[in-house]
């Protein structure tokens, strides 16, 4: 069948766009720091460059304006004259003085004299403004670079989910794995069933979310993700798949969203990885191939078989039947 629109892509990206915000869009400016962090890298770099460029040109223009109003530009080469800023002859020299001051380079050729109170005030203002701009923009870039989004790319989910019997019970299963040697601390997994339904009152819910039990009561949802694990949802009378059979699976339309959360061991930041399975990606009567083997003194994981499944005898009936 033709692949339909997903609520969550296989790579975890949510296919939701917000529109017609009206006056509510001003809320983004009230939290400007988070708005900048959420922007794409190209916009962050553009804002970073434009902010510094504009601030440098404005402050250099103010130093040049002070020298122009005091007449320092016309008498800069007079050894008997005491200017506001020594050796500032034009706008490029005023710009260089600002850069030397802002970057604390201090070449010693250009400096403020004691007979310029307006220059001292502008110097204090420049120092305060530069500290605020540096803290805001550099802090934004640091937070964006340290976000654990790339860590989620080394967390794997099986391409398909399977339905087969385990311990005499019909179960929906999928596999998760961690490609890095560093662990995910306090890793927890959750599953949501996204399916349209109509209430007894006639209300239509296009994207109704229902929780799938993957071991909340037993603690099986708390993962020790050192090796690939198979996550199991038992299909019983409380499961939304209670009436699901092999035949009805072909006509169903649903999406299972899987959310894996944990703390990155090396940075201590919370990481979240997501994926989803549509009805076409649920294989009835299949089981995952083993990927663990015992070598000389250690266990070896063969990730080439991570997505592989094989058929097993499974009743084609639903649990209700």
UniProtKB/TrEMBL annotation:
GO cellular component, as recorded:
monoatomic ion channel complex; plasma membrane
- Compartments, record wording: Membrane
Q: What's the protein's topology in the membrane?
A: Multi-pass membrane protein
Matches recorded under SUPFAM superfamilies: E set domains, Voltage-gated potassium channels
Which BP terms from GO are recorded?
A: potassium ion import across plasma membrane; regulation of monoatomic ion transmembrane transport
Q: Which transformation does this protein catalyse, written as a reaction?
A: K(+)(in) = K(+)(out)
Q: Where is this site: Role in the control of polyamine-mediated channel gating and in the blocking by intracellular magnesium?
A: 134
What InterPro entries would the database entry show?
Ig_E-set (IPR014756), IRK_C (IPR041647), K_chnl_inward-rec_Kir (IPR016449), K_chnl_inward-rec_Kir3.1 (IPR003274), K_chnl_inward-rec_Kir_cyto (IPR013518), Kir_TM (IPR040445)
Q: Name one GO molecular function term.
A: G-protein activated inward rectifier potassium channel activity
Residues spanning the membrane:
45-66, 120-143
Keyword tags: Ion channel, Ion transport, Membrane, Potassium, Potassium transport, Transmembrane, Transmembrane helix, Transport, Voltage-gated channel
Family, similarity comment: Belongs to the inward rectifier-type potassium channel (TC 1.A.2.1) family. KCNJ3 subfamily.
Designated name of the protein: G protein-activated inward rectifier potassium channel 1
Q: What is the lineage of its organism?
A: Eukaryota, Metazoa, Chordata, Craniata, Vertebrata
The primary gene name is Kcnj3_0
